[in-house]
Amino acid sequence: MTHIGSLDAGPRGTIADVAGVTVGHCTLAQGAVQTGVTVIRPHDGDMYRNKTPAASCVINGFGKSVGLVQVDELGVIETPVALTNTFSVGTVANAQIRAAIAANLRVGREDPSVNPLVFECNDGYLNDMQALAIHEAHYASALDACSADFERGAVGAGRGMSCFELKGGIGSASRVVHIGGNASTTGVLVLANFGKLQQLIVAGDALGRTLQTSVDEKPEQGSIIMLIATDAPLDARQLRRLAMRAAAGLARTGSVYGHGSGDIALAFSTAYTLPHDADFITMPPLIADARLDPLFQAAADSVEQAILDALFSAETVAGRDGHRRVSLKDALRTTP
């Protein structure tokens, strides 16, 4: 797969190149049920008691996520980030709440409630979402599986997802930059479930036009969730600016942010945490706004690379009612 841009990738080439970030999946793949849960942990501690600075950017708001309002208000996340299908958001949010209560018995009583954070994409073409197959135990399984080494493609929340009318799913990438003599890593994980085949661009090449054999007039009804992690010391305002640059990488792959597409980015920093019980908070020196351009480039390049990673990592999957999504690799093999 082509390397996007001029910046070097980290050693894994995934979001886990940002130290402390781990990812876990629980995959359900049987007949009409093709779905799952993916969990991203910014650190391995108690996220309710040691919150992670974060911010979101809604590029197109056709989505049913939980937790974004409070993230934008307070600038922190206090649970792991969960990805799943549209109809399973409530179930996974309940699982996050139960996990927070189990670790902190004062939650919702003496202490404030917890803000679960769940993102979704609609995998209904391949997966029978009406089966409501995701249970709280699947979130727990994905959380327990969190590791710096994780699969990409048609796994976890990405199992039933489609991208450019091909098989989509989980993709990841990373880039390393130098600011003021210090190295900083930015990593991205995407849940890719968007786009029309004719729009697909791979490293500047309008590949979708080559692969398309007939015109599909149906409107786009997909989504993409883009998670950006960085070890650079940024506050929530700066992280929102970083999240906005996800749109640049998304556009390079051919997306036009269609009417029915929920395109959402979340950026967080692992450079420090915000203690729940603190009266005062000591933050590290932040990178000056005028020096953020390398991080913006890293975010845009990593998002583009992660989308391509999802496409190239995925396998062909058959699901409900005989529906089938061919992987990009299989499509290229059969193209004259």
UniProtKB/TrEMBL annotation:
GO molecular function (one): aminopeptidase activity
A Pfam family annotated for this UniProt entry: Peptidase_S58
Transmembrane segments: none
Domain of life from the UniProt record: Bacteria
Keywords from the UniProt entry: Aminopeptidase, Hydrolase, Protease
Ranges in coiled-coil conformation: none
Similarity comment text for this entry: Belongs to the peptidase S58 family.
Record protein name field: Aminopeptidase
